[in-house]
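Design a sequence for this backbone.
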């Protein structure tokens, strides 16, 4: 007797039901047997002993770190730039950056980056590596994983890719979130806003959305590399409204004329970053003129030590 497709399906469901709910609902998981074929990152390798030099094991990196994956010194003409924002008003912060090669597991050592108050210095992977008196770089490590720690709160990190051929770049920050940790400071402002020096290639726009009924909002503008105060400006705000400021508008508001070497400025709410002074949201976008006017979101900043 030939069974119809419907009858066959019903008989199959009946058979599954006879084994109970667990058998009918169980998800079948297949074990990937050749995981080595997909391996792109490995932990540092440690020798077991001098007698068993061929025995190797992966060493767990112990501690509270912020991890930055896929950092590259130039893979396919892509270059990673790491930014180190410091929202402390009067404390210089120090971020340590441990560099692990993804292909070889080589521990290249630990770089150190100082951030003055309200600054966000930018470093390439090459900058970080050259600051370490460590082992020779292995070209097989086309990408690296960075392990970051910092000695102060109100410290953040931003990871940006830049392609030297297409002129395209993007915010690659991948943040983690932990229960009980306040992420308010990371919304205190935006960093590495392009000055009018980069207006013809990568014009920045800072937008502020007023969620509350605040009548006036004050913004401070700091030099990105040094944190020096460039000026303060205020604007009248209407509830539930958004205000957009280009770099030339911000510079005109504070009377600032950047030099050809001044590329970045930080725009932050005026007040204690740990307590939001306004019920407002600030964002930073960049238009890539060369890549068909693509708009890039450069807002996200990650906490360090989560």
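Sequence:
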């Amino acid at each position: 007797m030939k069974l119809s497709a419907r009858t066959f399906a019903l008989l199959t469901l009946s058979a599954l039901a006879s084994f109970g709910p667990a058998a009918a609902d169980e998800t079948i998981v297949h074990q990937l047997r050749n995981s080595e074929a997909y391996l792109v990152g490995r932990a540092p390798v440690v020798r077991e002993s001098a007698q068993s030099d061929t025995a190797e094991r992966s060493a767990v990196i112990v501690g509270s770190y912020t991890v930055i994956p896929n950092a590259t010194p130039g893979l396919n003409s892509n270059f990673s730039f790491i930014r180190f924002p410091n929202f402390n008003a009067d404390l210089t912060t120090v971020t340590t950056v441990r560099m692990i090669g993804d292909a070889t597991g080589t521990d290249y050592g630990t770089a150190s980056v100082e951030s003055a108050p309200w600054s966000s210095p930018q470093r390439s992977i090459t900058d970080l590596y050259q600051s370490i008196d460590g082992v020779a770089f292995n070209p097989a490590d086309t990408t690296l994983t960075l392990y970051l720690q910092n000695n102060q709160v109100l410290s953040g990190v931003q990871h940006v890719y830049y392609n030297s051929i297409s002129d395209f770049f993007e915010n690659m920050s991948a943040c983690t979130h932990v229960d009980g940790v306040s992420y308010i400071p990371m919304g205190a402002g935006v960093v590495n806003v392009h000055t009018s020096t980069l207006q013809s290639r990568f014009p920045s726009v800072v937008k502020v959305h007023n969620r509350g009924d605040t009548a006036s909002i004050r913004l401070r503008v700091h030099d990105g590399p040094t944190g020096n105060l460039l000026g303060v400006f205020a604007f009248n705000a209407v509830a539930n409204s958004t205000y957009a400021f280009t770099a030339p508008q911000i510079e005109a508001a504070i009377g600032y004329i950047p030099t050809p070497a001044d590329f970045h400025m930080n725009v932050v709410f005026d007040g204690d970053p740990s307590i939001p002074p306004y019920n407002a949201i600030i964002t930073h976008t960049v238009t890539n003129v060369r890549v068909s006017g693509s708009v890039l979101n450069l807002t996200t900043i990650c906490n360090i030590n989560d």
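Helices lie at 5-17, 21-25, 125-130, 247-254.
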